[in-house]
Amino acid sequence: MATLRLGDLAPDFEQKSSAGTIKFHEFLGNSWGVLFSHPADFTPVCTTELGYTAKLADEFAKRDVKVIAVSVDDVDSHGKWIDDINETQKTTVNFPILADADRKVSDLYDMIHPNASTTVTVRSVFIIDPAKKVRLIITYPASTGRNFNEILRVIDSLQLTDSHSVATPVNWEDGDDVIIVPSLKDPEVLKQKFPKGYTEVRPYLRVTPQPNK
């Protein structure tokens, strides 16, 4: 099985879901995407994750991000689980959950790790850009819930650094200072790109206020 790496084209697929049949690339359109897997329906950690993701709908929308979940159970099970999520988490699930009973998507994205479990998916997260390229991969064990604030933080960083010659430092949050990429050296270009100026801590470490998005 091929291993997905950063920069690879995200595999396309057609699969049933809680919102009907999904053609993945068509579903994403020109938006960013977050594809994330769940070990099974009616599991406690997953229930909290999906509920919290639903509550972040406005945050994902303002970043032009479409969210889609994966679980190996069928559509009927998903429908009953969504009712449980909505009731227990006080929200409304507003994104599709893929019904990956045949493991098609799980295999394409290497979501089943046999040394952890031979039957259920680990907690994988893929951030995919509008060109359908994989930009982030995180894999958690089944026992650990994901931090979706971190996923939003990474999306903010990716969208900012794609449009400006900067990188984001440790623990960066949207609005914090950023780092000018080391390859940018021309003084006139620096002045043009960073009119607010910058602080040179070292020649390779130059800090500047975050540019406007």
From TrEMBL:
The keyword NAD does not apply. Keywords: Antioxidant, Oxidoreductase, Peroxidase, Redox-active center. It comes from the Bacteria. Its EC number is 1.11.1.24. Gene3D superfamilies: Antioxidant, Horf6, Chain A, domain2, Glutaredoxin. InterPro entries: AhpC/TSA (IPR000866), Peroxiredoxin_AhpC-typ (IPR024706), Peroxiredoxin_C (IPR019479), PRX_1cys (IPR045020), Thioredoxin-like_sf (IPR036249), Thioredoxin_domain (IPR013766). Residues 4-160 form the Thioredoxin domain. GO terms for molecular function: thioredoxin-dependent peroxiredoxin activity. SUPFAM superfamilies: Thioredoxin-like (SSF52833). It holds the Pfam family 1-cysPrx_C. Belongs to the peroxiredoxin family. Prx6 subfamily. Belongs to the peroxiredoxin family. AhpC/Prx1 subfamily. PANTHER family: MCG48959-RELATED, PEROXIREDOXIN-6. This is Peroxiredoxin.
